[in-house]
Amino acid sequence: MSHTPYLTAGEDHAGPARSLVLAGGGMRVAWQAGVIRALEEAGIVFRHADGTSGGIFNLAMLLSGCSPTEMCERWAALSPRHFVSLLPLRDYLRSPRWPGLASGDGIAEQVFPRLGIDVERIRAAAGLDGTFNVCDVTRKVSEAIPHDRIVRELLVAGVSLPMLMPAVAHGDGLWLDAVWIRDANLLEGVRRGSDELWLAWCIGNSGVYRNGSFRQYVHMIEMAANGSLFGEMERIQELNDRVAAGEAPNGRTTPVRVHVIRPEMPIPLDPDYFLGRIDGSTLVALGYRDAWRYLESCRPEGVELGPQATRMHDGGPGIGFHWRISGPAAIDGVDGPLALRFAVEIGELDRFLADPGAGADAALVGEVRHPAFGSALLRSGGFRVDGAQVVYEGAFHAGGRRYTITGRRPRRPGTPLDVTIGADGDAPTRVRLVPTRREGAAHAASAHARHTGNLPEGARAVARFVRHVIR
User: Fold this and answer.
1) How far apart are the C-alpha atoms of 451 and 269, rounded to whole Å?
2) Which residues contact residue 252 at a Cβ distance below 8 angstroms, ignoring those fewer than 6 apart?
3) For strand 141-146 and strand 18-22, is the pairing parallel, antiparallel, or unpaired?
4) Quick check: 119 and 151 in contact, CB under 8 A?
5) Measured distance CA(55)–CA(53) in Å, rounded
6) Fewest C-beta atoms under 10 Å: which of 177, 266, 328, 380?
7) What is the pTM of this model?
8) Alpha-carbon Rg of the chain, whole angstroms?
């Protein structure tokens, strides 16, 4: 049965024609679900959406009818281990010429259902045109498959990286992830007449080049993805120059504006997600924070087209850790459990430790839940050290109101958190949340290094953080 996906521009929409472009990024594209939730809250709607590589997961969820909030919750609940499905043992023993290190069965049979991806629902979506970019290996081209022609085999192929997963047979050919050709298809939006392209980009683009075969495989993807993106931006700039000169084809009279939502620093790679050094809920919260950071400062004309559009800080060494705690609280006259799911990401530990009280380069992201307002993600937040205490401070919006939340606890993991929370202009609620033994143990073990080149460097960063902050 036909259905209209969330974020779809209605027939009476009088604003610009927009395309949502969801780039790849491996399993880390949980980050994009937070971006999509922020776009919905900002009232930004689209008539076309495009997905490549990992971005296919989120496009498929959206076209399956998932709400942005549901998308965030599904990613937060998903175990990254569902992505891994080994080949039959005989394939590993028979010959070293494997079709891939693993199969796509885990994605098709575990990940798709848990993310709410339903091929029939995708094909029945109306109002929002979707395109899925998949590499046709036999012709060496990236083909944009319209959503009403998509099949499960092509969805699996679209997220099947060479070496890691086998090529997928469909029709008369073989299909794979299109990342080596492109990781985002801006020109499909241009071809469809869009005036604005909103790109959610989480592939790294920093000045760092690290040793090791896996890191350099990732760097190859980064170079291919960013390089093809900049090539498309050059073509869009050429088109805009022709618009300004009155020479644009197809009667176009307005330039194409490109908005790019990206992290400030590269987000952790898939192994960190798989090993629990960062979780889905943190990736979602980072995407939401990054989207609002862009939405609150973006220019109507979009970004300057070129390499700076996706450039991120080099950063590191840094630290990330998470903190979950819950307890009873009465907020806005409503009694119920207050649940906090916070994460702190310190981009550069040296800058932070130079003055922990200022909280430089320390961002607080996460979710606040309570029956008074449901689920809300932090739009902004920070972390600092205040004498013998650590302080978490953030802001979120719920029910059309802005709330602030502050949490203080001694500089020891597993200790009670004194919380002050309330809407602007109202008397705040104060409550003490006492962690369970399990919550305290998880908090103490959650600190992991970010942006380091090897395990010893990461261990030294964690040791410095513990010595100077946690004590």
Assistant:
1) 10
2) 193, 239, 243
3) unpaired
4) yes
5) 5
6) 328
7) 0.94
8) 23
The answer to whether the CB of 82 falls within 8 A of the CB of 29 is: no
Question: Could you tell me how many residues make up the chain?
Answer: 471
Question: What pLDDT tens digit does each residue of the chain (471 aa) get?
Answer: 899 999 999 888 888 999 999 999 988 999 999 999 999 999 999 999 999 999 999 999 999 999 999 999 999 999 988 887 766 666 656 666 656 656 677 888 999 999 999 999 999 999 999 999 999 999 999 999 999 999 999 999 999 988 778 889 998 899 999 999 999 999 999 999 999 999 999 999 999 998 888 889 899 999 999 999 999 999 999 999 999 998 888 778 899 999 999 999 999 988 888 888 899 999 999 999 999 999 999 999 999 999 999 999 987 799 999 989 999 999 888 999 999 999 999 999 999 999 999 998 899 999 999 999 999 999 999 999 999 999 999 999 998 899 999 999 998 878 899 999 999 888 899 999 998 888 888 887 888 999 888 889 999 999 999 888 876
Q: How many helices (H) and strands (E) does the chain have?
A: 15, 18
> What does the alpha-carbon distance between residue 298 and residue 111 come to, in Å, rounded to a whole number?
34
Q: How far apart are CA 189 and CA 51, in angstroms?
A: 11
Q: Residues 381, 366: contact at Cβ < 8 Å? A: yes
**Nearest to 183, CA basis, from 204, 163, 214:** 204
The strand pair at 18-22 and 196-200 is best described as: parallel
CA distance 103 to 82: 12
Q: What are the helix (H) ranges across 3-52?
A: 30-41
Angle ∠(179,219,62) on CA atoms, nearest 5? 40
